[in-house]
Amino acid sequence: MSARGRSYRYVGPVELKAAVRPGSSGCRISSAAEFSDWIAGRSAAELTEPFTFVVGTDGVLRLAPRRSEHVACAGGDMVLGAGEIGFERAADGWAVSEVSNQSTGYCPGIGSWSAVARALDGAGLGRPSGFTHEVVFRRCPGCQEHNIVRENDFVCVFCDSDLPAAWNVDPTV
User: Fold this and answer.
1) Domain for residue 158, yes or no?
2) pTM over 0.85
3) Does residue 5 sit within a domain?
């Protein structure tokens, strides 16, 4: 864990990471001006759905079209946060309308919000006080499958084993 928070290694399908090419990462957004330039290039249709985002280990927000893989948006690197994000026009610019930690490739914990919040603040974007949709990820100690915990039911959907209360998706940390 760094001073900026826990970093997350890609834990999704190896073939998706193998397909990442140099220079394919999402658009780096470190200021309101960079965000304005990026959002101006989006179509009305794109703005109706959330985008893929990651927060790199440098603490900077990166954005990509919704159906992009998080690992591609991150250039294959570790992240401080990942998920989906939507934007709306606000009185004084743009603001985040929805944001989640929904990334089955990185499975970030809900504690990744602090890194996401810092990145959004750095990009000059209004934001909510937390994820608008929190996703709880766990790895089953029995079958090793990744699970999304729904309705506080910490039971593996693959083998019915109990899931741990604490985040444990990446066995290397």
Assistant:
1) yes
2) yes
3) no
Residue 60: predicted pLDDT: 97
| CA-only gyration radius of the chain, Å | 16
Is the domain of 20 the same as that of 65? yes
pLDDT for 24 equals 80
Both 86 and 34 in one domain: the answer is: yes
Question: Do residue 108 and residue 42 come from a single domain?
Answer: yes
- pLDDT per position as a tens digit, 82-115: 999 999 988 888 999 999 999 999 999 999 999 9
Q: Which domain holds residue 145?
A: 136-173
Q: What are phi and psi of 71, to 5 degrees?
A: -65, -35
Calpha distance 109→137 (Å, rounded): 7
CA-wise closest residue to 84 among 105, 98, 104: 98
Question: What would the two tokens of residue 141 be?
Answer: 């100690």
Question: What are the distances in angstroms from CA 151 to CA 11, 121, 128, 135, 148?
Answer: 24, 31, 22, 10, 10
Residue position matching structure tokens 């909510």 = 128
Q: Taking all residues of the chain, what is their mean pLDDT, rounded to a whole number?
A: 94
